[in-house]
Specification:
five-stranded parallel sheet; about 350 residues; Rossmann fold; Helicase, Ruva Protein, domain 3; three-stranded antiparallel sheet; 8 strands; Arc Repressor Mutant, subunit A
Length: about 350
């Protein structure tokens, strides 16, 4: 962006401007390395998830000996370390075995049977031999089986409840394949048919609870150590940020980033309480936008209905949904969607059975 902005400057002026920008960055009294405050940053160790790591590794251990391990379902709220821990363990296991291939699929993006299989095969086989357009699903399955004839495979399926065709899991559940499913709730695979659920067998359910405030403080303290100059922010301020994040580490780190960035723009020596006060709603909005972007079309319709009416009974909500959707889902799936919306904090549910009502979360 800087080069584009100065592409018409004379060379001497361009050199001066770029050197001045570099000087200003080096003179910053707040941030010295932004990367530890970004979502892409992967810490060397994931704090407060040691027991989860041990249980996951023990469950997957048979895979290293050539056997099919018990499938894992990691469930819990957003920002509790599910994806980070699963991908980190996958990377470690691949490093221990030359015969293990790993892949990660975001089922929100690759939601169909073909897209999920295509993503898997692209990661574990030669990408030069696979062409998305015109490649039939049977060919993808054949290539997957060809890889398994000489290797084992660990597949991480994130947002697995967004996978439209759960029969895909039936094909993946075979000898030499380890499966890690990631979702918000433990009933993410309830809509899979009995044939698929029988093939998967009993799953090891591992619950990821929201972080406590003290746990978030230790996470923020380490990120601040890596990203900010010494004394740029106090422990009391980190505690205030942690308290505002409601157990979500991603949201806490984003709040810290927004507050530090504002302090840096103002050329301050430290982060002020006012910087944090402005960063908290900004991080909350970003978290809500991220959550809404992950909703499928049916979930968005339900959310928009609750938004419009503020509060309504389950019967009224179902009626409005079926009036608006041409190809509605079954009532059981509809209830699962509402449960997901409530679990994510978009709506609130009260009452049971026919007296159940839904309202917009504050």
């Amino acid at each position: 962006m800087v080069l584009l902005a100065y592409r018409h400057c004379p060379p001497a002026m361009l050199i001066y401007e770029l050197s001045h920008i570099t000087y200003v960055m080096h003179q910053s009294r707040i941030i010295h390395d932004l990367s530890p405050l970004t979502e892409e940053f992967v810490p060397e160790e994931l704090p407060h998830r040691e027991k989860h790591r041990v249980e996951i590794e023990q469950t997957l251990e048979p895979l290293l000996r050539g056997y099919r391990p018990q499938p894992l379902l990691l469930h819990g709220p957003s920002g509790t370390g599910k994806t980070s821990l699963a991908t980190d363990i996958a990377e470690d296991l691949a490093g221990e075995s030359t015969n293990l291939k790993t892949c990660y699929v975001n089922c929100w993006i690759d939601y169909s049977r073909f897209r999920a299989l295509y993503s898997i095969v692209q990661q574990i086989a030669s990408p030069l031999l696979i062409h998305r357009k015109g490649t039939p699903t049977d060919e993808l399955v054949e290539r997957f089986e060809r890889v398994l004839s000489n290797s084992r495979c660990l597949v991480v399926l994130d947002e697995v409840d967004q996978l439209r065709d759960k029969d895909t899991l039936y094909m993946l559940a075979r000898p030499g394949v380890g499966l890690i499913f990631i979702a918000d709730t433990e009933d993410a695979l309830l809509d899979a048919n009995m044939r698929t659920r029988s093939r998967l067998g009993a799953m090891n359910l591992i619950s990821f609870e929201a972080y406590t405030t003290d746990e978030l403080v230790t996470i923020l303290r380490e990120r601040a150590r890596l990203a900010l100059h010494p004394k740029a922010i106090s422990d009391e301020q980190l505690h205030a940020i942690a308290s505002s994040a409601r157990g979500d580490a991603r949201r806490a780190i984003e709040t810290l980033r927004f507050a530090a960035a504002k302090a840096q723009r103002e050329d301050q020596e430290t982060v002020l309480e006012s910087d944090i006060e402005k960063a908290v709603p900004e991080a909350r909005r970003l978290s809500n936008q991220r959550g809404i972007s992950k909703l499928n079309a049916h979930q968005r319709v339900l959310y928009s209905i609750v938004q419009e009416f503020k509060e309504l009974s389950s019967a009224e909500l179902y009626r409005h949904y079926y009036d608006q959707v041409d190809d509605p889902v079954q009532i059981r799936t509809l209830r699962n969607y509402l449960q997901k919306l409530a679990f994510a904090g978009f709506i609130r549910a009260r009452g049971t059975g026919r007296w159940r009502a839904y309202s917009l979360a504050e």
